[in-house]
Amino acid sequence: MKVTEHIKKAKGKTLFSFEIIPPQKGRNIQELYDNIEPLMEFKPPFIDVTTSREEYVYIDKGQGLLDRKITRMRPGTVGICAAIKHKYNVDTIPHVLCGGFTKEETEYLLVDCHYLGIDNVMALRGDAMKHQQYFEAAEGGHTYAAELVHQMSDLNKGKYLHEVVESDYKTNFCIGVAGYPEKHLEAPSLNTDLKRLKEKVDAGANYVVTQMFFDNDKYFEFVEKAKQAGINVPIIPGIKPIAVKRHLQLLPQVFKIDIPETLIHEVEKCKDNHQVRQVGVEWAIKQSQELLKAGVPVLHYYSMGKSDNIKAIASQIF
Ligand code: FAD
How far is it, in rounded angstroms, from Cα 247 to Cα 267? Predict the structure, then answer.
């Protein structure tokens, strides 16, 4: 079922959902199941599965020589989506990236998703690879997420890249895109970024999931400005509980987001990361309670591999 249909069916009741990261290459899907299992009691109608960007790895060739190869350390997003969907009878949403894929590869991936009964896809550009200063599209790939949304919308109309399909075979994806309450790090201003978001919606995106934020006012202002910009699709808030002290530096550095002074102060007072995890949970509970009161369609949590903190939050909210 589509995310927009889940929201409609809930008739104003806020839904619970979360995002998981595929395990590293060679590891077992059981570790994902172990993390998902404790969250199923909160009845998520859908679960997102991220896609990792490629990165360089160095292979020891012996005699002190290193070979540099490009690889994706956490592949398997679509397969994992299919496995979870089948095991838990829940909708799963693969994150589909521009970065590292040609348009043809994307088309094959989307066709696979359709065969597997996946009704929702999240269209994302992806970040620059670690060694790059700026994002570079793959040769024959998309540069911006809006182009990827166009490709998905075309497929929904039965329009393939190379018009070789003779039937009127169409996909029927509900398309999600990313939004940034504190603007995307590369955007010159929030208004410009909102124009870009509007382009994604105009291209066919059906809902937005936000980047994490720690001050709900940023989300409320963003939703208001988005409405003024003519964006009328659901905007789902993304929430990440702080889990380690290092997040105080890492999150602003990587995502260019602000952390409120009060939260910084609470985290700095902690003696160990166990205490930090508790502070992160308490902050996320307060954020969730306020967002729930405001009637947000879904509370979407970034689980980053471990679910104990999401369970602690969800058990207070749902
Ligand atoms: P875009 O919408 O393409 O925007 C990227 C930048 O380009 C913005 O600054 C925008 O303002 C600008 N822009 C857009 N169009 C134009 C144009 N025509 N001309 C000039 N500038 C333009 N990353 C992963 O690698 N894997 C994931 O699974 C993943 N999941 C995510 C889930 C969510 C909910 C969010 C919020 C982010 C996720 N990301 C993921 C991170 C995302 O890939 C990065 O934030 C990336 O840098 C931007 O992606 P985007 O889809 O927002 O890009």
Answer: 10
Dump pLDDT digits (tens) for 116-156.
Answer: 999 999 999 999 988 888 999 999 999 999 999 999 999 99
Using one digit for the tens of pLDDT, what is the confidence trace for 196-233? Answer: 999 999 999 999 999 999 999 999 999 999 999 999 99
Distance CA 107, CA 192 (A): 29
- Fold for 3-317, please state it: TIM Barrel (3.20.20)
Residue 19 has pLDDT above 70, yes or no: yes
183 lines ligand 1 (CB under 6 A): no
Residue appearing with tokens 């929030």: 190
Q: From the alpha carbon of 212, which atom of ligand 1 is closest?
A: 36
Distance CA 95, CA 78 (A): 9
Those residues whose C-beta lies under 8 Å from the C-beta of residue 279, and which sit 6 or more positions away, are 242, 263, 266, 267, 270
Beta-carbon count within 10 A of 155 CB: 23
Predicted confidence (pLDDT) at residue 305 exceeds the cutoff of 90 = no
CA distances to 143, 234, 258, 275 from 269, rounded to whole Å, are 43, 37, 19, 9
**How many whole angstroms from 281 Cα to the centroid of ligand 1?**
27
Report how far ligand 1's centroid is from the alpha carbon of 127 (Å). Answer: 7
Phi first, then psi: what are they for 70, rounded to 5°?
A: -95, 135
Name the pLDDT band for 72 (thresholds 50, 70, 90).
confident
Hey, what are 126's tokens?
Answer: 């992806």
| Calpha distance 254→298 (Å, rounded) | 25
DSSP bridge pairs for 233: none
Active site residues: 19
